[in-house]
Amino acid sequence: MNITDVRVRKVAKEGKMKAVVSITIDDEFVVHDIKVIEGEKGLFIAMPSRKATDGEYRDIAHPINSATRDRIQTIILDKFQEVMDAEPEEAAEAE
User: What NCBIfam families does the database record attribute to this sequence (predicted)?
Assistant: First the structure.
């Protein structure tokens, strides 16, 4: 499995959620609404979820094992940091 595209949409409002991300796998399958969240121990991702009738949130799509989850999280957080690092340059170019 190769993640062939990562699209980051920053969240403008203040809060723990910093971005919403879509990833493309093998140029064939897209997963939308992965959230980048700032927790007590730093940034992490939350897979897309839906609120069930019992009030609990359940993941709609998620990795089967922790190694895959770690790999996806690393790729997403690296891209998120790249977007954040580029932001001041873009603002300066617009002036």
Answer: PRK13259.1
Of 4, 38, 8, 12, the C-alpha closest to 46 is 38
Q: Per the domain annotation, does 60 fall within a domain?
A: yes
Output the pLDDT for position 94: 46
**What pTM does this model have?**
0.85
Would 13 be classed as within a structural domain?
yes
76 domain-assigned = yes
Rounded Cα distance between 95 and 87, Å, is: 13
